[in-house]
Each structure stands twice: as structure tokens, then as C-alpha cells.
Q: What sequence folds into this?
């Protein structure tokens, strides 16, 4: 199949970028999207031009490295699919495809389609952990967890941190990512003791990073390759508000002796 | 202890979720007013030549403490709603300094993407509405004592009636997203009742619009005179 690609090219974080058009005359429908770009890049290298930079690692939808906006949709037209899992059979001969990086001030462009998602790491560092000495492995089932709660926590934990939610959001908000990370720990007994501090600290870091504010447009859940739902955002809002209103500051005892 | 309370309130109100909560609570309260106001207005349909609605108008005016408390509360709510909307929108625009050349939407409803259009239009409408039926300066023949006549004469002007109809469609759009959205913001989302909440928002928003629009339409087609 013959394709025309409009790709955002930007030499570095501070450089001025622009759309550049490339032709791929002989893409096969069996190629993955990234393989098609590999072919383009090899040709660019042979011609002595700069190849298109894009992030990728596992190429099987589990690491969260890959992703750019394909024709206005993060990770492209197929739902529940990362860019690396997308195949050229989702396109037709003669298609024009526009590729843009995740657009958010909190995700500065490194080069071309690759962005710096360090903001996500700093949000995790603010509370996406459980502060206990893990020691030796527990006996299985020593801490009872119901199947529904375990499943719900697992659904939240499916987040691979790719950033498609931010890219899809009309406000470049990171609420779905943060909600997934807050919820998967807050739902489980091991995460409960720090539940309110976690919600408040991670939201505070999210705000500090300059992400936008959710308007409940639900584009994030539609774009999420792991189909994580906005129900987790409601859950995070509950934990954040409850924590803000009722969590006791340290050193405020309950009276008595 | 002074700062420990001061600080948490301040940081709550300035957080993303805190500001959204302000939108949700003020929006809910304004919605409560919209419903109560509609119930009051529908008294124009009681076939007693306007006695009921005029009596209702007099009742409200005879309690200045009550009506001024209500007016100032509504004004404060609207002020908080608008200021917070502006703050949130400025932050949202700043969060994406460079936009997309191609952007496709999958789930975001038209209503959700135009809150910052429907909202300001509603605001302009509210100003017009107050000048029209409360202050009376843009009304052809305003009579402070006769609410019923003011409504009939007001809507016999087709442009005025059309402004009201358009404004109520805007309000319906705003509430269609707003009602569900405020539940989500306040953390109310659960597989047991979310489908009902979403459908309910659309039904309630449409019912509000139909209710309000029925008044100018009835005057235009001569049912009310
Ligand atoms: C009678 C007047 C109004 C009513 C009943 C009303 C109602 C609501 C409700 C219920 C919400 C949902 C809150 C949430 O998302 O959590 C909302 C949101 C909003 N309103 Fe209003 N509103 C009114 C006037 C205005 C005005 C005058 C503006 C103009 C600046 C405005 C702008 C907004 C914006 C920007 C949102 C946030 C949208 C979002 O988060 O998606 N509203 N409103
Ligand atoms: S490269 Fe790992 S998820 Fe796509």
C-alpha cells in the first residue's frame, strides 16, 4: 500500500518544529505501524537524512514507551491498542496519515514524536508506593482481599503510563493516569494506611507539574490502551476530598490520657 | 494551629479537584434555583388572568430580607462559578501551549466541549433577563405590579421571545453535560447508577428547556394572552 505521512519534525526541545510530508510507497498491511516507520527511517538514513525519532521498547503493548497521535487519535484508530500493537491493515492504500507528538506543556518534546514523560515519574514518587518494609514474602491469602476488589485494583494497575490520556484530553489533564495509580494502591489493604496522604500528595504533584483540569469529557478512557475508566477519577476525587476534609494532621490526638 | 486550618482550606480551594468541586457545588445550587424558578414561572398557565403569578410576585417582594438574601446568595454563587470557570480555562489552555493540527473526538459530547461557550452566553442572557423582567429598562411597557402583563407583553415581541428560546437551549446544553459532570466531580460514579445519571442529565436538561420555552411559545401562538 502507498501512504503519505505528515510527521511533526522538531530537532530538539527548544527548536521550532514543523510538519514534513513523506511518502511510503510500499508498506505492507502485515507490518506494524512502528515497522512501517522503521522502513521509512532506514530509507532516510540511507539518504543521509535525520530519521524520525519516536519512543518504543517492548513493541507488545506492555511497557508504555510508545505512542503518538495518529490522525488526531492517540495510539491511532483502534481502541484498546497501543501504537506498537497497531497494524497497517487498519489503514487503506492511498491514506494520508498525520503523526503528532503528545501535546502537553508538562510533556516537553525531546525530538520529533518523542516526549519527556518525567512528570509522570514525579507524580509516582509523590505517593505511588507503599511505605512498609516488605521483608520475606507473605503467606498467600494471609491478607484477605475480595475478588471484586482485587479485580478492580488490577484494572487500575493495568495502566502502563503511556500518557495517551493526557494527549487525548481537551485540557491536557493527567487525571486518569493519577486516578489509576492512586486507586490501585488505595483499593488494597496494603495501600489503605496511606490512602488519604497518597491521594493528596499525588494530586498536589500533578497540579505542580502543570497538567490541566479534568472537564469530564471522557476522551481519556476512550483513548486508554488499557481501557481504564473514568470511574477511577471519581474514586480519586472521593479519596482526595475525604482526605482534605477529614484526614487528621499529625499530632492532633483524640484527647483522653 | 492557625495556619494548619488556613493552609489546608487554601490548598484545597486552589487544587485542581478543589476548583472542580467549587464548579460542581455552585453549579448544583444554580441548578436548584433554575428548577425553583421554573416552578414559580409555570404559574402563568393557571387560568386566572395572572392572579396566581402576581400574588406569588407580591409574596416575594413583601419579604425584602428573604428576597435580598436569595439574590445576594445567587449572585455570590454565580460569581464563584464564573471566576472558577475562568481560572480553570486559563490553566487548561496553558496546559497545552501547542495544539494539534488534526484532532478527533471519540467520546466528548458537543455539550462537554462547549461549556465555555454555553456558560458565557447564559451569563449574557441573565443580564438581559434581569434588565427585561426585573429592572424593566429593556421592556416595552414595564409595570412593577403586574408580573403577568409584563410576561405577555414582553413575549409578544418576537425578537425577545426568540432570545429566551435560544438561551434556554443553551442552558439545556450546559446542564446536559453539567449535571452528570457534577456527580462525577463529587465522586459519584458507580456501575449501579451511572447509566441512570447520564440518561437522567439529558432528560432533566431537556425537561427544563421545554418547561421554560413553553412560556414564550404559548404567548407567540396566542394560548397565553
Ligand atoms: C444559571 C446558570 C448556570 C447553571 C445552572 C450552571 C450549571 C452548571 C453545572 C451544574 C456545572 C457542572 C459542574 C461540574 O462540571 O462539576 C457547570 C459547569 C460549568 N459551567 Fe456553569 N452554570 C451556569 C452558568 C454558567 C456561566 C454564566 C458560565 C460562564 C462562565 C459557566 C461556565 C461553566 C463551566 C466552564 C463549567 C465547567 C465545565 C466542565 O467542567 O466541563 N456556567 N455549570
Ligand atoms: S512499545 Fe511497549 S507498549 Fe508500545
A:
Amino acid at each position: 500500500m502507498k501512504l503519505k505521512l505528515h510527521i511533526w519534525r522538531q530537532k530538539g526541545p527548544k527548536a521550532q518544529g514543523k510538519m514534513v510530508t513523506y511518502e511510503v510507497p510500499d508498506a505492507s498491511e502485515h507490518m506494524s505501524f512502528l515497522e512501517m516507520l522503521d522502513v521509512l527511517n532506514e530509507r532516510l538514513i540511507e539518504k543521509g537524512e535525520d530519521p524520525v525519532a519516536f519512543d518504543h521498547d517492548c513493541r507488545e503493548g506492555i511497557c508504555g514507551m510508545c505512542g503518538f497521535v495518529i490522525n488526531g487519535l492517540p495510539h491511532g484508530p483502534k481502541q484498546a491498542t497501543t501504537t506498537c500493537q497497531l497494524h497497517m491493515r487498519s489503514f487503506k492504500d492511498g491514506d494520508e496519515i498525520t503523526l503528532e507528538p503528545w501535546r502537553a506543556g508538562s510533556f516537553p518534546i525531546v525530538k520529533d514524536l518523542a516526549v519527556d514523560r518525567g512528570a509522570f515519574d514525579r507524580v509516582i514518587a509523590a505517593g505511588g508506593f507503599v511505605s512498609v518494609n516488605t521483608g520475606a514474602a507473605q503467606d498467600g491469602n494471609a491478607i484477605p482481599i475480595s475478588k471484586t476488589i482485587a479485580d478492580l485494583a488490577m484494572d487500575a494497575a493495568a495502566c502502563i503510563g503511556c500518557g495517551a490520556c493526557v494527549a487525548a484530553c481537551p485540557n491536557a489533564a493527567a487525571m486518569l493516569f493519577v486516578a489509576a495509580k492512586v486507586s490501585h494502591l488505595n483499593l488494597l489493604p496494603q495501600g489503605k494506611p496511606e490512602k488519604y496522604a497518597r491521594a493528596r500528595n499525588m494530586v498536589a504533584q500533578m497540579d505542580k507539574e502543570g497538567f490541566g483540569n479534568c472537564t469530564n469529557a471522557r476522551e481519556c478512557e476512550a483513548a486508554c490502551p488499557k481501557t481504564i475508566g473514568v470511574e477511577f477519577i471519581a474514586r480519586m476525587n472521593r479519596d482526595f476530598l475525604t482526605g482534605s476534609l477529614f484526614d487528621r494532621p499529625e499530632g492532633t490526638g483524640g484527647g483522653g490520657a | 494551629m492557625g495556619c494548619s486550618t488556613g493552609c489546608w482550606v487554601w490548598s484545597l480551594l486552589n487544587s485542581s479537584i478543589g476548583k472542580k468541586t467549587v464548579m460542581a457545588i455552585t453549579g448544583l445550587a444554580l441548578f436548584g434555583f433554575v428548577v425553583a424558578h421554573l416552578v414559580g414561572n409555570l404559574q402563568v398557565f393557571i387560568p386566572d388572568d395572572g392572579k396566581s403569578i402576581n400574588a406569588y410576585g407580591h409574596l416575594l417582594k413583601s419579604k425584602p430580607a428573604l428576597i435580598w438574601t436569595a439574590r445576594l446568595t445567587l449572585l455570590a454563587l454565580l460569581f464563584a462559578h464564573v471566576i472558577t470557570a475562568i481560572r480553570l480555562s486559563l490553566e487548561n489552555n496553558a496546559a497545552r501551549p501547542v495544539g494539534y493540527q488534526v484532532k478527533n473526538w471519540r467520546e466528548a459530547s458537543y455539550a462537554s466541549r462547549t461549556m465555555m461557550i454555553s456558560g458565557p452566553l447564559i451569563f449574557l442572557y441573565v443580564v438581559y433577563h434581569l434588565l427585561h423582567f426585573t429592572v424593566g429598562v429593556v421592556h416595552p411597557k414595564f409595570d412593577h405590579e403586574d408580573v403577568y402583563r409584563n410576561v405577555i407583553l414582553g413575549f409578544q415581541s418576537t425578537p425577545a421571545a426568540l432570545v429566551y428560546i435560544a438561551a434556554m437551549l443553551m442552558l439545556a446544553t450546559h446542564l446536559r453535560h453539567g449535571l452528570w459532570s457534577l456527580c462525577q466531580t463529587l465522586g459519584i460514579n458507580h456501575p449501579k447508577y451511572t447509566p441512570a445519571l447520564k440518561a437522567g442529565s439529558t432528560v432533566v436538561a431537556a425537561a427544563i428547556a421545554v418547561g421554560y420555552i413553553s412560556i414564550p411559545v404559548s404567548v407567540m401562538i396566542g394560548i397565553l394572552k
Summary: The mean pLDDT of chain A is 95. Chain A touches chain B through 48 residues (CB under 8 Å). The longest strand of chain A covers residues 3-9.
